[in-house]
What we know:
Blueprint: H1 2-21, H2 27-52, H3 60-78, H4 97-111, H5 120-141, H6 146-169, H7 171-175, H8 177-198, H9 207-222
Helix pairs in contact: 1-5, 1-6, 2-5, 2-8, 2-9, 3-4, 3-8, 4-6
Amino acid sequence: MQNFISPIIAVVLGFLLVLVFKPKHNKNLKLLLAFSGAFLLSITVFHFLPEVYKSVDKPIGVFIMAGILLQIILEFFSKGAEHGHVHIDKNSSIFPWLLFVSLSIHSVLEGIPIDAHDHLIYGIIIHKLPVAIILSTFFLTSKLSLNKSILFLLLFAIMTPFGVFLSTEFAFFKDYYYEVSALVIGVFLHISTTILFESSEGHKFNLAKLSTIVLGIVVAYLI
Length: 223
């Protein structure tokens, strides 16, 4: 049940934080993004990646690279919202379908391996929280109606649990577990490394960001 509820709570919490506190400075958010990138990358490397390479008779590397390529394609439509950027017209009141579809595909994919990996849910939660804050901040300052904004965030929130549902109810995801997992690893590797390299202006890490990244790695190793 935790795997279904936790991603939804992370998105709702992000929306409530923006609604209540209306953050105007993004310094702390950048630190949270840096932590989430380091944590997700470390969870992938420490716990997720070694398992898929147990299946040495399958071209796992091909699927990992396919996942990286898939995420690059998704970001062509989402404009990088998965790692902290929202580049759509604030003055538009039209529901951002391209952003929604690309984020939904990403979210469904990240939900598929959660049920088989106890630690992965923590990486997803920490990844979703800053993304939800960024999306909420954008929507609440745009001309998109509040109802449409809430609908977007609610649908976005349930996509990861939907991925968990698919993995537990459909035999396809069990039969091709390693291939799908490797695809998701590619997605995670691209997302997390992009967050780390973009978490500092000019690609320079100051002491606070460096400490945050190290903390993310250590926490992921210890759990």
